Amino acid sequence: SGRLALSPSACELMSPTEKKNIGRRLKALQRLITLTFLVAPMAGHAGTVQQVGITNMITESELVIHGEVISRSYEFGHDQSQIYTRVLISVIDIIKGQFAGKTIELKFLGGTIGRRTLTVSDQFVPTVGDEAVYFIENLRRPQVNPLYGWRQGHFPVRYGEFADERFALTHDLQPIYEVLQENTPLGIELTKGVATGISVKPADDQVPMTVSEFKNRLREIAARSR
C-alpha cells in the first residue's frame, strides 16, 4: 500500500517528542517514495520513454495544436513537496480536438523556486518563443509530462534555410518527409526521440513537408482513425 509504520512495541518505548520527530521523518520519506514512484517509469536516459506510433499519438491525444509559448512560471504542488513548471501557449491552430480558448496552460513536473529544485530525468519543457505542433495527451489528469510520448509529441516549426517557407521538424530538428498511418502499441521498444511513422529520410528528390502539409496530413489520419 506504500504506507510506512512502526511496530506497536517500538512506539511504546518512545517519548511523545520522539514519536513526533519520527512521524515527521516518516511523512517526509513517504513523500519521497511517492515522488520516486511517480517519476521512475519515465526517468533516466532519453531511451527510457517508450516509442509510440504517430497514429497512436493522434488518436490517443485529446488535443493537437499548433501554438507558441508566451510565458513560463513555477508553482509548488498542494503539499509543497513537488514543483511544477507552468507553460502558457498561445493557440495558433487546432489540428485535433475541441478547444475554444486563445491560450492553453500545460504543467510539467520539475522546476526551481528559490533554492529548491526538482529535476526529472529526460524531462522536456518548452521555452518562451517555442513555436511547435504539440500533442497534448490529457487536459485534466496531472502528468509528469503532458505531451504524448514526451519529446515525440513536440514538433518545432522553423523557417527553411533556403526557402521562404515554414517547416515542421522532429524534436531534434530533423526535416519530415512523410507521415505514415502506422500503429505501434506501447511495448518494450524505447524511443530515440522520433515516433514511428515519421519519415526523416527523403526518397529520390523528395522535399521536406511544410508545416501546412504536416498539419493537413495529421488531420487526414485523425479523420480516418475515428
Number of strands: 10
Average pLDDT score: 81
Please bin the fraction of helical residues.
10-25%
Distance between the termini: 39 Å
Assembly form of the protein: single chain
Which consecutive residue ranges, at least 5 long each, have pLDDT under 50? 1-11, 28-47
Strand order of the largest sheet: 3-2-1-6-7-8
What portion of the residues fall into strands of 2 or more residues? 25-35%
Q: Characterize the main sheet.
A: 6 strands, antiparallel
- Note the overall shape: elongated
Structural class: alpha+beta
Q: What is the succession of H and E elements?
A: HHHEEEEEEEEEEH
Radius of gyration: 22 Å
Tally of alpha and pi helices: 4
Question: How are the SSEs ordered, and which strands pair?
Answer:
Layout: H1 8-12, H2 16-39, H3 54-60, E1 63-76, E2 83-96, E3 103-109, E4 111-113, E5 116-118, E6 131-136, E7 154-159, E8 166-168, E9 178-179, E10 198-199, H4 211-224
Antiparallel strand pairs: 1-2, 1-6, 2-3, 4-5, 6-7, 7-8, 9-10
